[in-house]
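Per reviewer request, we include the raw input and output of the structure prediction for the construct analysed in the revised manuscript.
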Amino acid sequence: MTISARLPRQWHRLEASRDWPLLAAAISALLSFVMLFPPWLTGGDNSQNAFGDALQSAGPALIIVAAVATIVSLAVAVVTADRQFVRLALVPSSILLALYVVKVADVSELADAYNRLAASFADSADEKVGTGVGLWLGFVFALVTEIFVIYTLVSRWGTGEAPSYPGFGGRKQPPYETPPDTEPPRYPPPPDHPPDLPREGPDR
């Protein structure tokens, strides 16, 4: 089988009534990427996001890759109407959620370490360090992404069996039937060439 034979015969447009779970999952994955920029670690008047010096050992590169891979897989699933790409999106979305779970644990442990260190100094004992809103919102959006991807698979998106997706364009259309020949017969049939006329002359 050639590559061209495996490509979809037609592309499909995004339809909100049919593709809203995939759309919600893609938006949540995008927001989980955006949450790398708000504060992840706060202490007094100071804060650091995922790119801060204190968090460089747990950098955001894998989160960016997982979020982008999830969005691309969901976009391809929409335009090809292929459930295989939804199953594929389950992998990076699961990795995205797992990364945020690890980040929450790491940053929380780092904040506790700062607080224990600050407790030994009388002038900084009142400045508590904690996890920022960006980290928690990123975790929530990663969780929502995973939920919507799983919901799409459970609801059998793209099969035409779910009532919320009527008339999905991925199903094959019946072939057109050849219309019957309704032209009346021509009688008598026209000759291939004009008939020979009798010749006049001495030979007759």
